[in-house]
Amino acid sequence: MNAQTPTSTQSYAVSMLPAHKAEELTNGGNLAHIELGDQLYTLRITRAGKLILTK
């Protein structure tokens, strides 16, 4: 997969989004629960440093 360089309009829109560090969400571990409405999701940081979000 190739990374694309965002245009100036895309950069501005991305900078307006809230940003959260995954390590803070997991309190330094590799798992966190995230609630959305009445659904519970699990956020996992893999050994390869990737994020997986599952129901």
Topology at a glance:
Blueprint: H1 8-15, H2 22-25, E1 31-36, E2 39-45, E3 51-54
Unreliable stretches (pLDDT < 50, length at least 5) are none
Average pLDDT confidence is 87
Strand content: 25-35%
**Helical content (DSSP H or I, runs of 4+):** 10-25%
How would you spell out the order of helices and strands?
A: HHEEE
Number of DSSP strands? 3
**How many H/I helical runs?**
2
Largest beta sheet: strand ordering:
1-2-3
Radius of gyration in whole Å, from Cα?
14 Å
Q: Given the helix and strand composition, which structural class is it?
A: alpha+beta
What does this protein look like?
- A hairpin with a 2-residue loop joins strand 1 and strand 2.
- The chain is α+β, with helices and mostly antiparallel strands and 55 residues long.
- Helix content is 22%, strand content 31%.
- It has a three-stranded antiparallel sheet.
- The mean pLDDT is 87.
- It has helices spanning 8-15, 22-25; strands at 31-36, 39-45, 51-54.
In summary, what is this structure?
With 55 residues, the chain is α+β, with helices and mostly antiparallel strands.
